[in-house]
Specification:
Layout lengths: L4 H9 L7 E4 L18 E4 L3 E4 L22 E7 L2 H9 L5 E5 L2 E3 L4 E2 L14 H7 L3 E5 L10 E2 L14 E4 L2 E6 L2 E7 L5 H7 L4 E2 L10
Parallel strand pairs: 1-2, 1-5, 5-8, 6-9, 8-10, 12-13
Antiparallel strand pairs: 2-3, 3-4, 6-7, 10-11, 11-12
């Protein structure tokens, strides 16, 4: 059975380590903060000028002055700080963010990412994504494996305008977990009940499958 958006975020949360500074992109990545282990300390950064984001607020407890880069209401943890965009992007460009988690429309087998524009559709701009992918050493993508037409989004080459080149390290889709290695997607784990053959069929790019592939465990 394919993973839900919440389960994708829950699996990615396992990649977050104690002491990390983490930037969460818009969409599925924002859910990751809800699943981080209680016994580790993590600082979530948002490029609009927040360090120390917590989980989303419960309904009725939202503060309209506390938002992330996607204009969603957030909570903050004790010790959180607020600053201007210049400071925020100094953190990003200075490589002080340990892990960046982004959504994507497409990822290519060599780690290119397209996540900001579909030609012909109105967009507000690239936002901080270009700086994040250019500066981060560790980028994990959270995404659906196929589009609404059932076409693969893990491709040999991206067809949409690129956000970054050769930068994605790992992908967690609704079908499995993949490392970008040797100009290919290496299957590491598969969603519970999803077969390797299903994943092969849904993946246009080169797919490496070695040995028995374990199911994702939560």
């Amino acid at each position: 059975m394919a993973l839900s958006k919440e389960q994708i975020a829950q699996r990615i949360a396992k990649e977050v380590k104690d002491g990390y500074y983490v930037n969460l992109g818009i969409g599925i990545p924002t859910l990751v903060a809800n699943f981080v282990q209680n016994d580790i300390e993590v600082d979530f950064q948002s490029e609009n000028g927040v360090l120390g984001m917590g989980p989303f607020p419960f309904e009725g407890e939202e503060d309209p002055d506390l938002i992330n880069a996607g204009k969603q209401t957030i909570t903050t943890l004790p010790g959180a700080s607020f600053f201007d965009s210049a400071m925020s992007f100094s953190m990003i460009r200075g490589q002080h963010v340990n892990l960046t988690i982004l959504g994507a429309m497409e990822v290519s087998q060599n780690g290119d990412i397209a996540n900001w524009k579909i030609p012909g559709k109105m967009v507000k701009g690239m936002g901080g994504a270009m700086d994040l992918v250019a500066s981060a050493e560790n980028i994990i993508v959270a995404m659906m494996h196929t589009n609404r037409a059932g076409e693969s989004k893990l491709l040999k080459n991206c067809s949409l305008p690129l956000t970054g080149v050769n930068c994605v390290k790992k992908i967690v889709s609704n079908l499995g977990v993949f490392e970008v290695i040797n100009n290919s997607f290496k299957l590491i784990e598969r969603a519970p009940g999803v077969s390797v053959e299903e994943i092969k069929t849904a993946t246009e790019g080169n797919l490496i499958v070695e040995g028995d592939i374990p199911e994702i465990k939560f």
